[in-house]
Amino acid sequence: MRADRLVSLVLLLRQHGQLSAVTLARELEVSTRTVLRDIEALSAAGVPVYAERGRHGGFALLPGFQTELTGLNHDEALALVVAGSRRGAQVFGLGSALASAMLKVVDALPASYRSTAAGASQRLLIDPETDLLSRRLVTEESPDTTTAEVLRAVLAGHKLRIHYAATDQPAKWRTVDPIGVVTVREQGYLLATRSGEDRTYRLDRVLAAEELAEPAERPDRVDLDRAWQERSTRFRTGGDQVTVLARVNPIRREDLARTALAILAESTDEDGWLRLEVTFQDSRHAEWALWQLSTNAEALAPPWLRAALHTRATTLATRYAAQPVHKDC
């Protein structure tokens, strides 16, 4: 336990430069007396930690000090390699950076764990590009240069100009104050404000981006997870929502549940099918969701949805009713 704490202490000093004993004690959840004893232990072990006295003093490491990642155990070393899957890096346009970083991490591992990491990279494949049916699993990605520009503005705290193509609208330029970037199910989103109003943009719809020199108008600290949850809630409860009554084959219930905003009521008919009352973001969302379930679902209400699905089915049936016309080559 103490060895883990000593490693954490060194990493804190490497990341933050100089920290007081009080700050270190708070971060490590120990007493200041324990911190002082740990500092003495590090000095005795040859770690170049020194004290700066005075009102704004604290402890720091000599510049340029490097350390091996000796605090990692077997499972932690393995987790690092497994965590370095491509999906998040691809969404953020950091594929090459991830590969370079993983090489450095493996190189810094203790010799006893390098073989584990090398073996894991050969024996464990996380999220390949296609499934067993050769269907590509990679979502649309924005260009690396565009994503990199977005990330630079987010991290630097600068305003950002983006050329954004909203759904069914021509692309246009807009200036936003970036808050953070979120990736969900292989899809990246830029959280920002525009004229003081919250905005959420899909990264794959950002056609171009330009970091501006002007500072962004945003709080110094942000709880990105909470901000995402709040926007997600507003998205689910806003818009022109529609409620649909449908019969669904039980084997496809979860598929519908993942697509719908919410299931309001559920019962079972005599034939075993489920009768569900579900909500969707809008009419297009409802039509798309029911169509995906094919013959495993039936929309009972509202009438306009039954009519829309009937039109789709009729058009498709008509197309396949006659033999195809082959042109002579």
UniProtKB/TrEMBL annotation:
Keywords: Transcription, Transcription regulation. GO terms for molecular function: DNA-binding transcription factor activity. It comes from the Bacteria. Residues 2-61 form the HTH deoR-type domain. It holds the Pfam family WYL. This is WYL domain-containing protein. It comes from Kribbella albertanoniae.
